[in-house]
Amino acid sequence: MRWLTPDGLVAALAVGAAVWWGLGWRGAALLLAFFISGSLLTQLATGRGGRRNARQVIANGGAAALGALLGSWPAAAGALAAAAADTWATELGSFSPTPPRLITSWARVPRGTSGGITAPGTAGGLAGALAMGALAHLLPPPGTAPGFTLIAAAGIAGMLADSLLGATGQGVYECAACAARSERADTICHEPVRLIRGWRWLDNDAVNLVATLVGACIGLLGSRFSS
Q1: 195: helix, strand or coil
Q2: Residue 207 — φ and ψ, nearest 5°?
Q3: What own/partner pairs with CB < 8 Å and gap ≥ 24 does 69-73 have?
């Protein structure tokens, strides 16, 4: 499959099996909606698509799989809403005619900077959260209360958590020779890069995982308080 690397395909099958096991075809439909929409938007934004590896699949779908195995529709749906909101925001944000602004300081930053937000990206993220909320509202398992507002809110919260972590805790590296910056520790410019901000372990995949966990927790806790 052109949207996944070989190890990404294995991880996607594992996530899909966990979601199906825990929530049946309804959970699988929600997962598939996220995967297809995100992959199509990536292809639209890049013109060639992107192949997600196992780490990226787990980062975006692991929290949903855990929620499904726990039998919690709100947790799984909240995680997928957060993943969709972040993915839609990232891909649609690439069409912004103006540079992004850092969510914490509102300073202009180069395109692709973690924590940078744009009007098209924010609108896309909101649309992704609302779309997943609507689908979760239409497909709840028997005995589960529909929760459009809760799931959409979980998605939006996850997207905001992603941007805030990207702007503050995510590792940023710099080349000592030319000051070029990267978010990857294995980057070599003129010489190996050095960490100048954030934590080494908090890369983009870790940020995505935390964001989906935020969405899952809000979905789970919100359903408990509303029941």
Answers
A1: strand
A2: -65, -45
A3: 69/18, 69/21, 69/22, 70/22, 71/22, 71/23, 72/219, 72/220, 72/223, 73/23, 73/26, 73/27, 73/136, 73/140, 73/141, 73/144
Contact, 82 vs 214, CB < 8 A? yes
Please write the tens of the pLDDT for every residue from 160-182: 999 999 999 998 888 877 877 77
DSSP string, 10-48: HHHHHHHHHHHHHHHHHHHHHHHHHHHHHHHHHHHHHSS
Cα four-point dihedral sign 92, 4, 157, 137: positive
Kindly report which listed range (6-20, 41-55, 107-121, 178-192) carries the lowest average pLDDT score. Answer: 178-192
* DSSP character at residue 193: -
C-alpha distances in Å from residue 136, one per residue of 15, 57, 151, 155, 156: 18, 21, 7, 12, 15
Q: What distance in Å separates the CA atoms of residue 156 and residue 111, rounded to the nearest whole number?
A: 21
Nearest to 198 by CA among 222, 181, 223: 181
Residues in the chain: 227
The tens digit of pLDDT for each residue in 114-163 reads 899 999 999 999 999 999 999 999 999 888 876 899 999 999 999 999 99
Answering whether pTM is above 0.70, one says: yes
179: three-class secondary structure by DSSP:
coil
